[in-house]
């Protein structure tokens, strides 16, 4: 039980209070008195409104449930008229374009990957901020993008056969990124600076140059033997690293030791679905890591192969200018990914603070504290600069419709007053991941038109909400088929069209969702080229390696050109509002049903047991075919809602689900046997809090607000923490 400090009607758990007073407030230009007074009045002003928004969600859900109970249509005019009637569908605003100022180039003008990382994992978070630049050689060598054929297995030590494949493949990519006037990088034997110009010698003795000399920006090292050459292409940068003495460069005719790509242009430091943070202790860690990132002081010791190194944030990268940039000083490029912070949504409360004795809405607390911390970047208090334009970037997830966006906009305005920064300093990323937001997206953007910096199709939460909203309409298609139904394609396309119509191109990001299969990079290369092709100027990746590989797509595809050719008027509402139910319930035989159930239950247990027992909010969990899947609260929402839906419509029985849970608990324990920190569920499933959490998520899934998983996860994790503390 936390001890609290009292500030009028507000109480603050001691460890969070100490962190704010001793670390977050000093040098922020905000006095403790002003801050706490502001905090108290912020909760006074917004707590009831927050609760009213949640009550409105429930009211709409009940109306929708009643409609389906009475056999209402599941698509078409009657259905849409009903949704309009209850206020779920709202009127479109007058035509407008967004008006956001002071947006960094990385968001407004560069098309490139967006990395997401759980902020409470400092090791990963530092890796993420440094993932602005990534080794293409490592990304190719270490993944299935390079096949194992013909003796190219990765093995335990360096395999020169694989290495040669990497080099050839990288040079083929270079032909797209840096076309030569003649021939190919595959034939290059040297890169030289002569009379201020870059020349490339070829295996046949010829000398060539870049097709576009302006691509070369600068170099590092001796002008006669540069160690690095830096180039620009499609708004992104890349470095050729040359060292003929290095193990890789030695075997390369041009002495190239690596090709380093600008990769994670932006990163989302996640306080939400990839994080397990349930109390003051956890939230203080979340906020202190954010402060460390804003001040550039975060560090962590990383031990690998018997060596320990301290991981810190990387400095900017400097180069001597190429001839055409000679009139400039040195060329400096950002060394770190531009950071957003994803706050939690409007749903949860947290007892890290109490207002009038009740746990406060966690989203309000996140907004206030992450913005206060962000102010240190604006003041230049840190070792590095995050936003060169003086903005604080907050992603707001899981908002339902325009009134909830308006609430966040008003909240941010009030927070700006408390932390004493100009209006609209706090920018907003709007996750389009709830159905009521998708179908009213234009109105949502309009409510934040002075601060919106991205919209993003969070298709995972969106799928969970699709199921929960229409829980009583009938049994849903199996999970794989849900992705092939018209609703999702229409949702993705309408999101881009709406973003373009509202003037986001050149001012903000139109983003696409996560690649959730972290080890399948060859498949990612195939699938994720679809994102820039669809007009998205960013898309989520789960790891730095994935960022480096996905960056290649933005070199191949000029997103801004594509955006200018797309149909802005597409709205797709009919398809978006066609519920993806099982077309022929009888078409799924018993075997297929059990297989779907096994897969869902395995994913749920594999994720939930680590969340509840170990406090790990994002995991790679093997599916039934042993393919590791990224699981977070959003994927859990899908799996648990899917089973709840099949239970509600008798596609599966309660006993069948319980038997499956028991069988899969054993399997999940076996899968984790190699983890010394793992706390198994078997043999006593009744006493295993993680197992009970998984059962609750399924059997009480229908009654969960919007099908969200966090109320039950938080409750069970708190129980577990208490048990562990003895
Ligand atoms: C629906 C949504 O909301 S999606 C957004 C939420 N999801 C996420 O944020 C996913 C983030 N990704 C992750 O957490 C992880 O990549 C996982 C859980 C999917 C896989 O993790 P692991 O199995 O530990 O990864 P793996 O063993 O393949 O790689 C570990 C290495 O990669 C790094 N790494 C993995 N993911 C990331 C990341 N997102 N950012 C930075 N570094 C990362 C780690 O730092 C580690 O390197 P290190 O040893 O040098 O520190
Ligand atoms: O937050 C992302 C999602 O897909 O959900
Ligand atoms: Mg989400």
TrEMBL record:
Keyword Oxidoreductase on entry: no
Protein name: Malate synthase G
Cofactor: Mg(2+)
Coiled coil: 43-70
Entry GO CC: cytosol
Principal subcellular localisation of the protein: cytoplasm
Residue positions of the active site: 342, 632
